[in-house]
Q: What sequence folds into this?
């Protein structure tokens, strides 16, 4: 399965977990986590949304994505964009 989509991602891809998608971007040699945008719910931010770059991710754990100043639970992530294309949307 590839991460290249020309329009909306296939429904079967949307069923993959955020953790699996981020790990694929991080560990596959033909992918680069730095090219991802991660959209997540952040209470108090404008529109309760914050967008970070994949390069801001310090570590991926079982239930959380760690950035420099926060731990973000995967269930708060609602969209992942890779090279300008949506690859995850809930």
A:
């Amino acid at each position: 399965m590839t991460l290249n989509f020309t329009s909306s991602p296939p429904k079967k891809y949307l069923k993959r977990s955020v953790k699996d998608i981020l790990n694929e971007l991080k560990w596959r040699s033909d992918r680069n986590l730095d090219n991802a945008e991660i959209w997540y719910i952040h209470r108090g931010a404008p529109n309760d949304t914050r967008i970070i770059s994949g390069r801001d991710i310090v570590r991926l754990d079982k239930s959380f994505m760690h950035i420099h100043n926060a731990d973000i639970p995967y269930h708060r992530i609602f969209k992942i964009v890779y090279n300008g294309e949506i690859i995850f949307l809930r």
Q: What stands out?
A: The CA atoms of residues 41 and 49 lie 5 Å apart. The chain is about 15% helix and 40% strand. The mean pLDDT is 88.
